[in-house]
Amino acid sequence: MKKISIRTAFHWTCFIGLSVFVAITFYTVQRDYLEMARMENISGKIIIFAATGFFDVPITSSALRKCSGSLKDSCAITSHWEHYPKARAVVFHSRDIDQNSLLTFPFVRRSEIPYVMMASESPYYAQMAEYKNYFNWTMTYRKDSDVFGPYGGLVKNNQTATVNYTSIWESKTKDVLWLVSNNIHVNNRRKEVVDKLKQLGMNIDLYGQVYNNEPADCPRYGAMEECEEKLQKPYKFTIAFENSNCKDYVTEKFWNKAGRYQMVPIVMERKIYRDLGVRV
Ligand SMILES: *[C@@H]1O[C@H](CO)[C@@H](O)[C@H](O)[C@H]1NC(C)=O
Ligand SMILES: *[C@@H]1O[C@H](CO)[C@@H](O)[C@H](O)[C@H]1NC(C)=O
Ligand SMILES: *[C@@H]1O[C@H](CO)[C@@H](O)[C@H](O)[C@H]1NC(C)=O
Ligand SMILES: *[C@@H]1O[C@H](CO)[C@@H](O)[C@H](O)[C@H]1NC(C)=O
């Protein structure tokens, strides 16, 4: 028999210990959410039943917190089975289901209410296996979805905005930023395009795991707002290439980052943005 070194054994013990810890924590968190969902006073409200989480995070009524008062007060989102018989719609997030989990969905289908497929990613990454005649509605970033759920949008301001372009211009000391996630092998080959632009002389600062250059004090997750601002605001332009060139697929890269830090976004295909009413 092969000998197992103490170190290997120790590693495995740690690994198993850690896995158990993670599993217990996850279970506890899930249970607390379910308990909260059960306790929520949903009487008189329009109930949307969340059959899955959103990337494993439970979907609850707190998802409505940015909605207008009347909507917030008249709707509830819950994932507690007790509420299923009263639901007016059932929502599934595409990345949290597969055909197996649909087969094991523990309740009898209520065909009088719509089953809704929610997809936040583009078709390349939404993991939409073939669900033949299963879903009634779609809820995605696409304008032609039954329920349009974009990442962002333009809203007309009631007051005339006063913008001091001189001071914005003076604060811009750097040229182009590309802050990329670790997702390199994407279908539209955005990295190759950026590398080529840089090679052709565009002054792009490249940050991210792909380039072995993660901003030290500004990690991808859990970064402080101030550090993001300090890192990004000095740039005139930001590369806002999505991981897929798809109709209406415009994410927070464009809506949040470019807008918040007053950078001009550089995008791959103008047509997609024109369709969203953005001036290009
Ligand atoms: C639940 O909400 C309804 C309607 O808003 C209210 O009449 C009722 O008293 C509430 N029940 C509890 C237990 O808070
Ligand atoms: C939803 O689709 C299923 C399967 O095609 C169908 O049986 C059901 O009547 C539909 N329900 C609604 C509300 O559209
Ligand atoms: C703009 O003004 C209209 C009419 O006064 C009001 O109904 C609307 O809520 C306002 N919108 C914003 C974003 O403040
Ligand atoms: C705009 O910003 C510049 C530079 O910061 C400043 O000199 C100027 O007074 C500002 N103009 C207004 C109208 O505030």
UniProtKB/TrEMBL annotation:
Q: Which domain of life is it from?
A: Eukaryota
Give one Pfam family: Glyco_transf_10
> Could you tell me which residue ranges the Fucosyltransferase N-terminal domain spans?
61-152
Q: Which residues form the Fucosyltransferase C-terminal domain?
A: 169-274
GO annotations under biological process? N-glycan processing
Which keywords appear in this protein's UniProt record, sorted alphabetically? Glycoprotein, Glycosyltransferase, Golgi apparatus, Membrane, Signal-anchor, Transferase, Transmembrane, Transmembrane helix
Single GO cellular component term: Golgi cisterna membrane
| UniProt EC number | 2.4.1.-
Its UniProt pathway annotation is: Protein modification; protein glycosylation
Q: Which InterPro entries match?
A: Glyco_tran_10_C, Glyco_tran_10_N, Glyco_trans_10, GT10-like_C_sf
The name on file for this protein is Fucosyltransferase
Q: Supply the source organism for this entry.
A: Caenorhabditis brenneri
